[in-house]
Amino acid sequence: MVRSILSCYGPAPVALLVGPGDDAAVVEVNGRLAVSTDTLVEGADFRRAWSTGADVGVKVAAQNFADVAAMGARPLALVVSLAAPGDLRLDWARDLAAGLDDECRRAGAAIAGGDVSSADEVVVTGTALGVLDGPPILRSGARTGDVVALAGEIGRSAAGLALLGSAGSVDAALGLTASASELVRAHLAPRPAYPAGPDAARAGARALIDTSDGLLRDVGRVAAASGVRIDLDPAALTPDDDLLAAARAVGDPTLAARWVLTGGEDHALVACFAPDAGLPAAFRSIGRVLDEGQGIGRVLLGGRPWTGPDGWRHFA
Amino acid sequence: MVRSILSCYGPAPVALLVGPGDDAAVVEVNGRLAVSTDTLVEGADFRRAWSTGADVGVKVAAQNFADVAAMGARPLALVVSLAAPGDLRLDWARDLAAGLDDECRRAGAAIAGGDVSSADEVVVTGTALGVLDGPPILRSGARTGDVVALAGEIGRSAAGLALLGSAGSVDAALGLTASASELVRAHLAPRPAYPAGPDAARAGARALIDTSDGLLRDVGRVAAASGVRIDLDPAALTPDDDLLAAARAVGDPTLAARWVLTGGEDHALVACFAPDAGLPAAFRSIGRVLDEGQGIGRVLLGGRPWTGPDGWRHFA
Fold first, then answer.
1. CA nearest to B221 within chain A
2. A26-44 in b/e burial notation, b at 16+ Cβ within 10 A?
3. Domain ranges (residues) in chain B
C-alpha cells in the first residue's frame, strides 16, 4: 500500500537519491542535519469526522517541519508511518498522501519514504529532516536584554477548534463567516512560515522555539532552558478582530486573549535576538528577556504573572 | 515523559550535536544518508504478555537499523515515537528506552530524540538514519550469473514465535531447551548483524535486502526489481538441528523448512555479488541469479517453483 500511495508523487523539489520503494530512502546531506519526530493519533489529535486525510497529512508535515525550522533548519525530507484499521478507506489514505505531498512541496522538502501497518485507530508518525546552514539555535541561548520576537500568528488554531466544537460539524463551521472559516482551516491544516526559522538563524537569533503548545508554555521553556525571566508585552499580544469575533461566536469574549496566550498548534516561531540585532522581516517584538538567574523559567505579562486559566500550572 | 525516559541515556557512541530535549535533534552528516521508518503495533506486531518493553525497544531499533544496513549504510541515529494508553506502566516505558538504548549501542548509533502521545494501544515508530560510505545498494542491481549470498540466520524468529504460541507463555517457552529458548529470544528481540551491510557494499554487492518478510518473499523483491529470475540452492537452506527440534516440539516436522523459506523478522541480509567477487566473511552462497528478462521476479528452489504454503501467493 505504501508504494501505491507514494507512487502518486511527481518529481520532488529536492534531490532524493533514492525515494520510496527500497529498504530505505537516501538523501544527500553535507553538514548538520536536524531531525524531529511527531505523532498524530486519531481521537487525541484529530477526528476523522472533522479532518480529511489531506488535513492530517498537512498537519503531520507542518508539525514536524516546524520543529526543524525551530532549530534554524531548512526542511529537506519527511518519512511517514501510517498505522490504521483494516477498514480505513483507501481514499482517506490517498488524501493523506496528497496532504503530505502538498505541505512537503510548500516546505521545499520531499517525501522520502513510509511504512504502513495495522492498528485499531489511525496513528500517523512523521519524521522530518532539515538542513542547517549554521549552528543550531537552541532554547537555551536567551540573554538579559534580548528582544523576544514572534513570526506567524497565534491563537488561530485554538479559535478554530472552539468554533468547530461550537458549530458541531466542519460543514457548519466552514459555513460561518469567511474569517471564522479561515480559523477552522488554521486548526485543521496549519501552514507555518518555515523560512522564518533559517531567517532567524541568519539574523543571529540566540534562542528559537515553535509555539506548538501555546505561547506562555513555549516561551516558558525558553526561559527555563536559558535560566532567565521573560516579560511579554500585553500591547503586542492583543487579539485581532477575527479572534474577538470567534470568541463572541462561541459565547465567551474573554476566550480571545486566552487563545493568544495559551492556544497551541499554531507553530509560529518565537526567537530571542540581541538588543542591537535587526529583526528579520517576518518577526515582530513581543517582549524582553529580563535578568538572568532569578525566577528561572518564569514568564511575565507586562511585568506581572498571568493569572488566567491554563496559565502557570503547566510551565511554572 | 520523553525527557525523563531519555535522560537515562549516558554518553552516546556517536557525536550528537544536539540530543533529546530541544525542538529537534542535530547530527553531523557528510555525504549520503539512508533513512527508514518502521512501526510496531501492539497486537499485530507484539503482545505485552510476551514482550517486555526492552524486547520491543530492541525490536524497533533492529528493524529500522536492518533497513539502513540493507542499503549498505552504517547505523547513525534513531528517533522514536511512542503512542500509548494512559495506564501504560512507567516501568514498561523505561524498559522500552533501555532496550532502544541497548540495541542502539550495539549498532554504534545514538538515540537522537523522541515523542510521546496517547493512544488506545501501544504504537512504537522508529526512524533510523544511517551513513553511506559509497553508493546505496539497491534491490535492482542483480545481474545474470551473480552469486546470491546470505549473512545471518533465517527461520529462527518464526520458530521462536511458533514455540511461544505452542508453550502459551514466555516463561513456559523460555523453560524449554536452551536452543528453544534462544529461538524465542530471537523472535522477541532480534539482533541483526548490521556490519554485514556496509561489508557487502565495500565488497561490491550489486543488490542488497534484509529478510524482514521471509527469504522467498524478499529474494522475490530483488528478482522483481532487477528483472531477473533467482534460483536458490536447497542444500544451502536446510534447517539446522535447532529448527528441526523446534518443529518437532510444536508437532509438525515439516515446519522447519518452511520457517527457513518464509519466516520473517530475522533481518538477515541477502546480497547479490558478481561471480568473481569474493564474499565478505559474514556471507555464504545460497543461490544464483539466472537469465535476465524471463519470468521476471520469480524465485526458484533447485530450479523448480516452491509449492509449499505461504509461497508464491505473496511474491509471484
1. A22
2. bbebeebbbbbbbbbbbee
3. 2-132, 147-315
